[in-house]
Amino acid sequence: MRAAVKRARAIVQGRGRDHRVVVPLAFEVAARISARPLEDFLVDPTQLANGLGELQRAIAADGIVVACADGIERASASSGVLDPAAMLTQGPLGASLEACRRLRATFADSAALVAGLSGPATLAAQFGIDMTSAGGAFGELVKAFCEAGAQLVLVFEDADSGFDETWQGVVNTAANIARFHQAGLMGWGIPSLEAPVRQPLSAPSDAGVGFIMTEARVPADADIALLKAWVDGARGATA
Questions:
Q1: Domain ranges of the chain
Q2: Which comes out higher in pLDDT, residue 117 or 164?
Q3: pLDDT of residue 160
Q4: Distance in angstroms (rounded) separating the CA atoms of residues 99 and 66
Q5: Listing from the earlier edge strand, what are the strands of the sheet with 197-199?
Q6: Spatial distance between the Cα atoms of 8 and 172, rounded to a whole number of angstroms
Q7: Model confidence band, residue 38 (pLDDT cutoffs 50, 70, 90)
Q8: What is the dihedral of CA 56, 220, 200, 12, to 10 degrees?
Q9: Among 8, 238, 231, 220, CA closest to 109
Q10: Is the pLDDT at 236 greater than 90, yes or no?
Q11: How confident is the model at residue 239 (pLDDT cuts 50, 70, 90)?
């Protein structure tokens, strides 16, 4: 079987018609497996990289989620200002970016890396700015994670966000940035964006191609054995 990173690149480049990359949307579970307080874990790149690495070794997925949106951009901003250059060096966003670099070095081509980021509409609402400004910042965040080794940026938007032509334009620009770095952009429940195949944690299946993910975010207190069983079931392996 081709290495996970090569399969992920083939998928985002439209060449991997039969390829599958199994990655549970599990991020905070790593804090539990490392026995670290979640609030400390999320802002410490060493703890984050070590915890996510331990989780990967325990469940043997095809990839690792290195960031999972949920307000990390806002939590990393000083004085409520959307400044990507500063945000990428501090808080949970900075920790995730550095963890991404370290995990790429540790796992090389054996694990694809997925970065979940808030989309431009969410950023515009959170920071009280226009879509064009939010889109420029979003593009910088996408570029940083792709340069750090992510193969997929997963876009999360608030349910009430409007996806108009301006939004589509800035997302297309971000997708081009990802493509330049041999990575891709997908949406989480966004009608106009290609999405991963989503499967319930309790009912994995080896059906479908592309990125295969859990139906929802895996809670921090999830049972590791159940998560490993999901990975095996989604891959079609026997227990």
A1: 4-17+36-187
A2: 117
A3: 66
A4: 7
A5: 20-22, 210-214, 197-199
A6: 20
A7: confident
A8: -50
A9: 8
A10: no
A11: very low
Total Cβ atoms within 10 A of residue 102? 19
User: Of 33, 62, 46, which is closest to residue 237 (Cα–Cα)?
Assistant: 62
Q: What is the pLDDT of residues 181-202, one digit of tens each?
A: 999 999 999 988 999 999 999 9
> What is the token pair recorded at 42?
């999320």
- Please report which helix (H) or strand (E) contains residue 135, including its range: helix 131-147
Distance CA 178, CA 223 (A): 33
CATH topology of domain 4-17+36-187: TIM Barrel (3.20.20)
Q: Name the residue type at position 70.
A: D
- pLDDT at position 58 is 96
Cα 144 from Cα 141, distance rounded (Å): 5
Residue 229 CB neighbours (<10 A): 17
Phi, psi (degrees; rounded to nearest 5) at 183: -125, 180
CA distance 91 to 45: 9
pTM tops 0.85: yes
